Every structure is written in structure tokens, then in C-alpha cells.
Amino acid sequence: MSETAGRTGGPHGEPHEAQVIPISRGRSRSDHEPPRDHPDREPPRDHPDREPPRDRSDHGPRRDPGGGPYASGDDRGLWGDGGDDGDRRLAELLAFLRRRLTGQYEVDEFGFDAELTDKVLLELIRPLYRHWFRVETVGAENVPGDSGALVVANHSGTIPVDALMLQVALHDDHPDRRAIRLLGADLVYRLPLLGHLSRKTGHTLACREDADRLLRKGELVGVFPEGFKGVGKPFSERYRLQRFGRGGFVASAIRAGVPIVPCAIVGAEEIYPKIGDLRFLARALGLPYLPITPLFPWFGPLGLVPLPSKWLIGFGEPIRTDEYAPGDADDPMLVFNLTDQVREVVQQQLNELRLRRGHAFPPFL
């Protein structure tokens, strides 16, 4: 290195020592501003040619250098706007995987895995809920937030997608983000993979013992009294409730002293319009029915894609049962009358929500 390194030339080329600005001292205004008579220098504050000061109060969303708006008070996008958020998400994912591999997670006596349900299974079906069916909930505040209750809903859609959408609705749109424990038919639990996943997401067998235990524990329990007759009914009978069984769900609610919340689901009837049934093949496979729709089986696997109908899920005012004694659950006439009352309320809700929704396939916005 030459001896003149770190030097600069003067006006006539003669070397002189370069000026060093200490780090502990910031640059003064004279270090970087042009002279007062320089054409690029701004006029003084009181000069008539100077622009008035801008209003720095920001009443709208902040924007990044690329023009994308940030949420108020939050400078992170969907996947985070910096390394810190990405690192946090990666750390959460690794911690989740470590717990799964080492078995350090909890399930209840019914096999319900709350962490797996919230972080994986609901995440997988949430796009259907938000963007495909565009589900709206009505009256979610009628569902108790911290006590047991029995949600009684209509069943339809050829494939029970409505059960999954009801689960997302109560988890995402209820003020207390409630987990619903759905009671399913025994056919569900005879299928190896489906039965295992149903247990993991909190569902259990539709029997008196399981229903009573869950309700007494303060859980939110869901039931579809129409069963396969409801979910498999033809499209010509859409939104007409089938028989509600013998009222076993009402008896469970009376024994536990919990309210019954009537629920109407509009939109499921149109996702797989059932226009026929392959009965012989259904019996051979041990299924209650094997539907024919406008798209299945003619289009093969593409026929299994549900049509994007508009959904509404409404929760009515709770019907109290705590005014009855637990022994009243053995009174068949009382149980029958209360079952019929719940069925009429759900049918009325269906009629009102259909009018409110309008066309099943509104234009996409």
C-alpha cells in the first residue's frame, strides 16, 4: 500500500490529510447541506417560496415502499413482513412436530386431540368454509360460551360436509371459539381412517352414554337427528326435514339439564344434487346409498368436487330443559312433544334462511 493511502488531493494536486469525522459525533447540518446561496438549498421556513409543511397525521393505512397497505398497528403481511415472523412460525412448526413425534400432546377420554384439530385439520377445511362456500353465521351468540349445550341441526348434502362446516363455524365465528363434539353413526367408526380422524377431531358415537358424559362435562355436543335419511335424501326433497328419530337427544339434554340450540344449515343441499341412487352397488359395498348426481359418476373424480353454493348457518334461541327433572327423560310423551317442537323450530329457521340467502349460486365478487 502506498504512503498516500487515506489522503486526498488538494486543489492543485498536493496531498493533504483527509478529515475524519468521529463516530461519537453526528454530522452537523453544515456537513451535508449546500451553501445558503446554492440553488438546491431549500428556502427558509418564513420564505414566501417555501411550500407549507405537510400534515403528517396519518388517518389511513400505512403503506410499504412497494405500495401494499399494512393493517393498522401491524406491519406484518399474511406470512409476515420480516425474518422475525418467519422465524417464529418456523419455531412453532418445529415445536409442533417435536410434540407429535415424542408423544407430548394430550387427548381426552374420547380421543379428542385439540391441538391437531386446531392447527392441522381445521386449517385444511377452512378454505372451503371461507372461499368456496362463503359461509355466513347467524345467531352464534345463542350458543352458550362456557357451559354444556346440545346443538340440533338438519342434515343434508349427500356427503356430510355440513358437519365439518358446522365445526368450523363454531370454532371461528363463535365469540368463545367453541369446539363442538359431534355424534356420528356407527358406520363412520367402522371405517379405519375416517373413524380415527373423527375421534381426533372430537366426534364420538351417537349413543346415550357418550352424549350424557359429554353434556355433563360442560361440552358443546352436536347431533343430526335425521341421520342418513336426511343427508341422503333426493334433491327434489331439499330443505324438507325428515323424521327426527325417537328423541334420544332430547332425553340426554333433559338428564343433563342443558339447553337445546336449534340450528339450520342452508347451502349443503346444492353441493351434490342427488338425482338417483345405485342401490344394488350400495348394498354390495355396505353403504346406505350410492348417489347419482349431475356430475357423478359421469365425470369420474371431478364429479366429487362440491358445487360452490352459498351457505348460511343459523343458531336459534336456546330451548331450556332445566325446568324438567332428570326422571322426566323417561316420559315418552314429553320427549316426543319436545322433539317435535325442536323439529318445527329448525324447519322454520330453514325457510327463513333460504329466503334470506336467495339464489344458491350468486355471482362471485
Detailed description of the structure:
- The structure is a single chain.
- The protein is of the alpha/beta class and 365 residues long.
- Helices cover 34% and strands 11% of the residues.
- The protein has 11 helices and 11 strands.
- The chain has helices at residues 29-32, 83-102, 114-132, 161-172, 186-190, 192-200, 208-216, 228-231, 248-256, 279-285, 332-357, and strands at 7-9, 15-17, 136-138, 149-153, 180-184, 204-205, 220-223, 260-266, 276-277, 291-292, 312-315.
- The strands form 3 sheets. It has a 7-stranded mixed β-sheet with strand order 3-11-8-4-7-5-6, with helices on both faces.
- A hairpin with a 5-residue loop joins strand 1 (7-9) and strand 2.
- Helix 3 (114-132) crosses helix 4 and helix 7 packs parallel to helix 9 (248-256).
- The chain starts with 6 loop residues before the first strand and ends in an 8-residue tail after the last helix.
- Residues 1-36 and 53-82 have low confidence and may be disordered.
